[in-house]
Amino acid sequence: MYHCKKLADSQGRYIAQLSRPIFWYPLLVIILVAFLHYKQAPAESRLLAPLTHPATPRIAICLVGGARRLELTGPTILEHILNVYPEADLFVHSNLDENTFKLSLLRSAPRVTEVRIRRPVVLPETKQDMRLLSASSSPNGIQGLLQYFELVEGCLDMIGTYESRGNFTYDWILRTRLDGYWKGPLDSKAFKPGSYVVPKGSRYGGLNDRLGIGDKFISAVALSRISLLPIIYSAGFRDLNSESAFHAQLKVFNIQAEELRFPFCILSDRQYKYPPSGDIAPVASIASPGPLSGAKCRPCIPQCKGECIEKLGPEKWLGWTEWHNGSLELCDGSQPWQEDWEEFFDKVAGEVAADVRHRVKDMKTEECLQEMEGLKKKAERWNGPDPIEICNLGLTSK
Description:
The protein has helices at about 25-40, 45, 70-80, 125-130, 140-165, 215-220, 230-235, 240-250, 305-310, 340-350, 350-360, 365-380, 385-395; strands spanning about 5-10, 15-20, 60-65, 90-95, 115-120, 170-175, 180, 195-200, 210-215, 255-260, 265, 285, 295-300, 380-385. The chain is α/β, with parallel strands linked by helices. It has two domains: about 5-265, Spore Coat Polysaccharide Biosynthesis Protein SpsA, Chain A (Alpha-Beta Complex); about 270-355, no CATH class. The chain has a six-stranded mixed β-sheet, with helices on one face. Strands 7-11-13-12 form a four-stranded mixed β-sheet. Strands 1-2 form a two-stranded antiparallel sheet. Pfam families: DUF7796. It comes from Rhynchospora tenuis.
């Protein structure tokens, strides 16, 4: 059991730290009341207007995670999500580290509602956590899962606070990751009343949790990754990875998940055995033409495609994604990124993305400060360290 306790730091700001044992009860009551209201409301009252309706629904977009490769993914997120839905409110929840200065790229977003940059703290792991969650599927064990879950749930806190101040409720909440590399626009057909929409593929025994779209009531359950752990534990679930914990969470509340194909993948520095088989994750090339739907990827000259893919038998992979008709091209994920990946990336991603990559690589403190101050000024709410601290941390570590 958890709650979120705000501790003031030396500058008067706060950092979120989980502790025990009672705060999650009020949040859970809110989730239950909202969800019961949703389930009991007449079906016709829940059918939200399509995005083409003159009265445009209010959308909250929340980007979570680390900014490690944001110089590569940022331009694609701007082009294919934020600029496609320019009236949406953007929320960002990330940890402070040497890559945080790259968040300055989001200064170009049409709207920036809140940026929250938390100072990392070790989250407590209970015996219940160790029985409920599986450490083997996470590079940082159970701690890694809890850190990710807290970032996701932080979206609800930011969005709820903004709704309360404005006395309104969002029609839709879209949550995805900062390390997502998008090759095409997010289709408005992904906004489906009555369902929580997730990518098809890369399920790893549960449901793909790299992107989720739902109305406010459904999203209140889907994004409560920390608060609902005691509930899914009490329901008898054990030894869950991120995807299977997410699936269990929706199952307990009888929420229907709809799986669709999406044109994005997750840039990963992790190394996986090659060729992939069984529960080994395939690592796709960003040059793959197909909708990778959140599969792991990297910039590489493909080592396997066409008939080679068919011989591997992708339907047997635990983390499979769409591979028919030449849509999937594989990297050798057992090695680090190839030495000339920058040249390959620039060729595939295009001139605009290549220029951004070069600019971030060569960024100096003065430019960083200007960009970060610009992001801070644009955000309606800034909840993080001063830009000088962010820039010093990032640029001195190069």
